[in-house]
Fold each of these.
Amino acid sequence: DVKVTQSSRYLVKRTGEKVFLECVQDMDHENMFWYRQDPGLGLRLIYFSYDVKMKEKGDIPEGYSVSREKKERFSLILESASTNQTSMYLCASSSPPLTVWVNTGELFFGEGSRLTVL
Amino acid sequence: GQQLNQSPQSMFIQEGEDVSMNCTSSSIFNTWLWYKQDPGEGPVLLIALYKAGELTSNGRLTAQFGITRKDSFLNISASIPSDVGIYFCAGPVSGGGADGLTFGKGTHLIIQP
């Protein structure tokens, strides 16, 4: 079974703390993503990575950074957590599509990490 | 970024009823995906559509890729309690490839016994 594992299901942090959210996938996927999910806003892309040590900004990167030192691991970092970063964070991975006319592979998601910043 | 308009935002239905939801975009997509998120879990892919006009079924689920490539529909027949959850439409971020997916805001499906 394919597996994307997020290290913490629930976290409570204080404003100003540094927060690390870890994600590991066992499918040897090249691409990894971090989304946040908020009621009424759906899923919004924070950052993604298509190779080790490579990263690209998504739609809402402000206040976040990422690290991809190994292919299987993609970390989301909140340098100084704020209350507006209280959210559900979802990690996902994918492989490049097998045919050129399909421009995305299926995304496999982890179970999510619910972060509360007080 | 690209936006997907998904409706309805929520649905309250009786068990056994059919369900229909849709997604529209101002941009052309060449792939449409439908995901379902169970409570407390991450989204899981239900159906993928790759050709305009394509109609694809997965059990009681049927999805269509609109002919204009700017919309897609998901239908669920004879709903059952385990259909409860949030349904998302998704399409590739412009540029495609490794850029990930853009998602609609979701349709909450609630089934009353």
Amino acid sequence: GAVVSQHPSWVICKSGTSVKIECRSLDFQATTMFWYRQFPKQSLMLMATSNEGSKATYEQGVEKDKFLINHASLTLSTLTVTSAHPEDSSFYICSARDGGNTGELFFGEGSRLTVL
Amino acid sequence: KQEVTQIPAALSVPEGENLVLNCSFTDSAIYNLQWFRQDPGKGLTSLLLIQSSQREQTSGRLNASLDKSSGRSTLYIAASQPGDSATYLCAESKAAGNKLTFGGGTRVLVKP
């Protein structure tokens, strides 16, 4: 099946710093990628939809200036958490559509962010 | 607004028993429904995807059914094994490649 790679898989940073998370589709082109956030023992909540070459669409309640999303190519989308605070500590997961007609989405392994 | 619910939130069974995981959704106008597995601290592994025109999908010991009229999908795992212990999530999509709305998940523990 299609492979989506996320990097880094975990990161610890100091409060006030910015952290960038990469999401790559390794064997297919993804015009659309999605970024989700998952708190412990909770389900995934969609943060934003990332479209190649255009601005991301953010879900209600997600601060676009805090969570910067860039989708500059068909295989790479990045999420930057700016001025991170402890409440931003979470598991961030990206997914990409395989471009076929089934609409199946493939997910990265996730990135665990811990803000001290 | 679509709501996806999974009951029970947690399930514990002895090895060898069949597992039945339930997923319900409030809006029957779905494009597809997907079942995922998530191990602790890991990403999602896609298990089965059912298109809205389909009634079920099977892969090995896994079988997923879809009843749009009643807003339900069921994941069956036959002859459970300790390695099946994980959280199982269902999610629906309104269109091809569209965002997924996830249920809260069912945490499964298969005891040896």
